[in-house]
Amino acid sequence: MSExxxxxxxxxxxAAVILGVTGLIFYYMPAMMxxxxxxxxxxxxxxxxxxxxxxxxxxxxxxxRQQKREEHRD
Length: 74
Fold this sequence. Notes:
The protein is mainly alpha-helical and 74 residues long. Helix content is 95%, strand content 0%. It contains two helices and no strands. The longest helix is centred in the first third of the chain and has 37 residues. It is elongated.
């Protein structure tokens, strides 16, 4: 397999794992938010905001890492 094909395959696997883990977290998030809202509604808001931002941050960081790798190859 070519180097480019391996890179695409590993990227697809990484994206699938990230989406799977995120899907599980978002599936259980309503229960987590309801539990936290008994303590403070602001904590449940913060949890929701944190997970949404973390979802995008993971892909942003992965893109930065891949960009840095490509710059090193050239």
